[in-house]
Amino acid sequence: MLEIKDYNSSILHEISFSLKENENLIILGQNGAGKSTLAKVLSNLIENDKVKLFDNNISILSDSKRASFINYIPPKLTIFDEYITLREFLELSFISSVDNKKLDEIIKLLNLKKLEHKYCKSFSSGEKQLLLLASAILHNAKITIFDELTANLDISRLKEVFDIFNSNLLQQKIIITHNLDLAYALKFKILFLNDGIIEFFGNHEEFFENKNLSKFYNDSIQKINNHLVVNL
């Protein structure tokens, strides 16, 4: 399980919520709402003592234990990652020893074979996102946080990622996204941030009621016949 209680900073205010083990979450909100900051707090990239992972305070966990509990996947590769090959990058994803059989399986699953020995700097934005997804699967933490993983994916690749999010390839998932269609289709629990404040935390069905869509998106989106429609 994951729990954060009474976290405050200049960006986030009175943040408290908890997830049961294997309970998945979508984090929504406008740009600048604090979504990425929250993800970094939950994974202790912003150090704190307000988060518990499986009844352990995150501040006292060893690096290896924390890595096995939670993994933060950033929106893009760092400059240092650009100068290694895809296979080298994925070899670094394992918490302990490299499992080459599993690595080969994931490369095949995500159709990355043709990129295996190419440098990451040559990849398109969408290919880099798939590389990050492959890394998360191989890392296999109990909880994986994805920060805007789907932002640069075309429709066919987005469907592949949706299927993986909806499968058991990953354990517990926390997904930051602006893609309401993805959030609606996945049917995960929803957390909505606005100016660093949690304005909604609850089940998928309640969030996607028209009264809440109107409240959180200023009447720009409504649900008609179980489809989300943009009001132009």
TrEMBL record:
Gene3D superfamilies: P-loop containing nucleotide triphosphate hydrolases. The keyword Oxidoreductase does not apply. Keywords: ATP-binding, Nucleotide-binding, Transport. It comes from the Bacteria. Pfam families: ABC_tran (PF00005). GO terms for molecular function: ATP binding; ATP hydrolysis activity. Belongs to the ABC transporter superfamily. This is Iron siderophore ABC transporter, ATP-binding protein. It comes from Malaciobacter pacificus. The lineage of its organism: Bacteria, Pseudomonadati, Campylobacterota, Epsilonproteobacteria, Campylobacterales.
